[in-house]
Specification:
Number of helices: 8
Low-confidence stretches: none
Strand content: under 5%
Shape: elongated
Helix content: over 70%
Distance between the termini: 71 Å
Length: 161
């Protein structure tokens, strides 16, 4: 195995795997070397060293690919934080109470049509159900949604306190 240390060191310089130190590289190479010994067939004229290097490099690339996939998964779970310029982020349960209070104030200002549009936005009812409930067209529901967005955006700290 010591024969392949320079090749392993060269790959470690070329590729970066988070949390891997030199011993981790050697351990991973040892595992791949063992697997390569199990499947290597020298009758086809190929050399063990080049076959091992190819298998090890593919394993390193696979580890990097998995690492990047887990990063994408985590990034996919995040949502952008859009904080109103006049507001400061609030910690923990205080934030939830503040949001609940803001929603209550907003719903008091909404018309019956806007409340129905809000139910549609939240996925509680379909567009057809909203139109039947309000005896209107989808265009009226869409206009109510635009008014809701405007109502929410124009709120500032003085309206909510």
């Amino acid at each position: 195995m010591k024969k392949y240390h320079p090749m392993i060191d060269n790959l470690a310089k070329h590729y970066y795997i988070v949390g891997f130190d030199r011993e981790d590289w050697y351990q991973e190479a040892f595992i791949i070397c063992y697997e390569t010994c199990q499947i290597f067939d020298g009758t086809s004229g190929s050399k063990f060293g080049s076959f091992f290097k190819m298998k090890f490099e593919r394993r390193v690339i696979d580890l990097i690919r998995r690492e990047n996939a887990s990063k994408r998964k985590i990034n996919g779970m995040t949502e952008p934080l859009e904080v109103h310029p006049n507001q400061r982020p609030i910690d923990g349960h205080r934030y939830l109470i503040e949001v609940k209070d803001q929603v209550e104030i907003l719903t008091e200002k909404m018309s019956k049509l806007e409340l129905t549009a809000m139910q549609f936005i939240l996925g509680k009812i379909t567009m057809d159900q909203a139109c039947k409930k309000e005896s209107c067209t989808p265009k009226k529901i869409q206009n109510a949604i635009y008014r809701l967005k405007y109502l929410i955006l124009k709120q500032d700290d003085s309206d909510l306190s």
